[in-house]
Structures are given as structure tokens and as C-alpha cells.
Design a protein that fits this description.
This protein is mainly beta. The strands form 2 sheets. A 6-stranded antiparallel β-sheet has the order 1-2-3-10-5-8, with no helix packed on it. A 4-stranded antiparallel β-sheet has the order 4-9-6-7, with no helix packed on it. A hairpin with a 7-residue loop joins strand 1 and strand 2. It is globular and about 35 Å long.
């Protein structure tokens, strides 16, 4: 299967998972796996949340974000990948001056 994110409408999720501002995403969902091209404007975040039934992989395409994973803070930059296993918690915030763009895959387990 090929997913053409250029032909998927972007949805806006205000204060996603308790985060700040808006999370914008183009999504494909087959009932078990969600594949997204996400975007966070400067100052926007996805709030801290736990993956109780699934895991998530985030691959940074553009920009730089602050990542909180299991109480540890790090920087996620272009070309880097973050993995949040089932049962763990994370959040991401754009503290920069340009939009952050990334691919994310949330897979049921």
C-alpha cells in the first residue's frame, strides 16, 4: 500500500492529549494502525500520554522538538526517530520558531 499524504486533508486537533495550541495531522487508519504526517506550529505540543494498548514511532522530518519520555527530556531533530513502547508515556513540544513536521505510526499490540 502507498499512502499519498498530499491527497489527505489535514485535520486540526486543539489541545491534543492536553497539549498546547493545535496539532495538525493527515491520517490513515485501517482499524488497527494509524499512520500520520503531523505538524506542530511554534509553541504547540502533544500532551503527556501513556500508550496502554499500543506503541508509537515518531520520525522527525523538519524542525526540532523537546521530547519528554518516561520522565527524561531530550531533543528530537530532523532525521532522528523516537520509539515509545507499549506501557510508556511521552509528550512532544515545538519550542522552536518554525513548524515541526514528523511521521508517526501508532500500532495496536
Amino acid at each position: 500500500m502507498t499512502i499519498d499524504f498530499n491527497n489527505i486533508a489535514e485535520e486540526i486537533f486543539p489541545n491534543f492529549k492536553g497539549g498546547e495550541k493545535d496539532y495538525a495531522a493527515k491520517m490513515m487508519f485501517d482499524g488497527k494502525v494509524r499512520i500520520m504526517k503531523g505538524r506542530l506550529i511554534p509553541g504547540a505540543s502533544i500532551g503527556l500520554h501513556t500508550h496502554t494498548t499500543n506503541c508509537e514511532v515518531i520520525f522527525m522530518l523538519k524542525g526540532e522538538a523537546t521530547l519528554l519520555h518516561e520522565g527524561e527530556t531530550s531533543v528530537l531533530r530532523e532525521g532522528r526517530c523516537h520509539y515509545c513502547p507499549k506501557g510508556e508515556s511521552h509528550s512532544i513540544k515545538n519550542n522552536g520558531e518554525v513548524d515541526v513536521e514528523f511521521y508517526a505510526v501508532v500500532a495496536e499490540q
